[in-house]
Amino acid sequence: MFSHARRDVRFAAQRMAVAGRRAAAPVTRMAHVPHVPHVPLVPLVPLVTLVTLVTLVTLVTLARRTRARRASVRLFS
């Protein structure tokens, strides 16, 4: 039990130190940050590629099916 309490105190101290560092950070360095956020672009790239791949595959399969159907109609008629 005491070890948990000690750990919590240590974590709290670390959090306070981090908060203090954040508060002490100069504001001039933060000025250039609000450009286009870079984070949401990363998951979008594979998503876009996946969507394009799926659409291409569906189009190809549909084209093959229609072609096969036409060929079978020609054969049986």
UniProtKB/TrEMBL annotation:
* Keywords assigned: Membrane, Transmembrane, Transmembrane helix
* Parts of the chain that traverse the membrane: 44-63
The protein's superkingdom reads Bacteria
Descriptive protein name: Uncharacterized protein
